[in-house]
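Entry 14. Two folds queued back to back today. First construct below, sequence then structure tokens.
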Amino acid sequence: MRVVAITNQKGGVGKTTTAINLAACLADLGQRVLLVDLDPQANATSGLGLAQEEGHSLYAALVMGADPLALVRATHRPNLSMIASHQELAGCEIELAQAGNHLARLREVLAPLRQSAAYDWIFLDCPPSLGVLMTSALAAADELLVPLQCEYFGLEGLGKIVDLVEQIRQSGANAQLHLEGIIMTLFDARANLSQQVLSDVKNFFPEVLYQTVIPRSIRLGEAPSHGKPIIEYEPNGRASTAYRALAAEFLRRRNIQAS
């Protein structure tokens, strides 16, 4: 079982969209996936059709000492479970920082989930910031996935994430953390800028760049408002095809055979 942090400190890059749809596509391939919504905005929670409920987010385990296994909720998709979010998670930014061990706390909370052997993957959908929740996720994860929009500001943000990963490693909080992959999102094949940014990332990060590129799609933006992943909302569309390909590539890079 592996813990994968899906993060980008910039909002609007397709981070939560990728977390929802990659998780759903992997579940369709027979992988047992737990998606943990660490963003107080709870977009992944609503994007899978779950309600926000006070006391049922990871805040209860991080701060109140609740059993994380009791927070897991089933979704309407087979093989896909979730720990939902709530705005109460915003309090973790202050309370964990004051506790002084915030880099270790999330790893401790996830330990029972790791030991349960109920999941093949735990995905952490991180908030779009460089705050306590994001750094805690990096300290707890085995690997990092970065959705990156095809714009130049995205390249600037990627450098900050790479630096942060190195800081986490050197601090001793998580010496094994590594950037496993960069996923290009919001790609417009008609735009020269999208092509140029994709080319630049290929040049700088050839080993970790995923071959699958996620296109801009109106349907992809509509799906969360219906509480559905794109493979359910528009199963035969371009975005569904792309996320299915991404899930297959995700497994292939790890030499895992889909069931």
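Second construct, same run, same settings:
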Amino acid sequence: MAQQPQLQLPKGLFGIIFIGIIGIIFLSKSTATIKGGNRGVLYKTFGEGIVTDQPALDEGFHIIAPWNKVDIYNVRQQNLFMEDMEVLSSNGLEIKLDLSVLYQPRVEELGLLHKTKGKNYVDVVIIPEIRSAARSIVGRYTPEQLYSSKRDAIQQEIFEEIRRKTVTQHVQINDVLVRDVTLPPTIKDAIERKLKQEQEFLEYEFRLQKAKKEAEKQRIEAQGKADANRILSASLTDKILRDKGIEATLKLSESPNSKVVIVGGKDGMPLILGNN
């Protein structure tokens, strides 16, 4: 049986394939694609290392030397939620806080952030500063202040403290939100009872002041009426009363109804007698 001729590839084809594979690897190492909301920090292997004196690589496609490297950072605002963080109040009672911290890296300082803190900068910078600021600020207040009137002030103070301490560490703190304050149950119940009693006292004071104002109003009105009556009584003489009576009699006598007018009634006043 005759043997089938075997297909032989040109000797130079293997070299071309090898060179093509090397070229593909070389090309893949020479490009970087940065997606939206991210920036890239360039590392030069045969240069100064991490580039800190130039802006971070922007979004899009970039060609780089194959021996260099690009580290990608998310530069959007991010939310760090810290739950059940234990702190102490001014009188030593244990308080638990739930905080939300809005942060992002400073784009213009991204190279320095990568060089000094690294990609885990949240664990290295932000979380320790949050814990430190929360303990420092909360330790100035009583549980009652934390539970009621001072929460907004505490939230603002924690924000200012964290922002002040991180401004030189290449990250930006945009806001801090105190989501919840958890007190020991016995302390919470005592505070709620006290607040209820204070509210009831304020309501009682309000009703008392209202009653006092109403009594004062009635006294003033009564005094005004008494003064008016006194002035009127002092001004009414017998002559004035007779004149008024005569004036009224004359007006009645002019009406069409049949009547009898008798002059010389009681106290010299005229009397009017009608049909009835």
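Quick look at the second one. The chain has a mean pLDDT of 77. Residues 78-183 form a domain with the Tetrahydropterin Synthase; Chain A fold (CATH 3.30.479.30).
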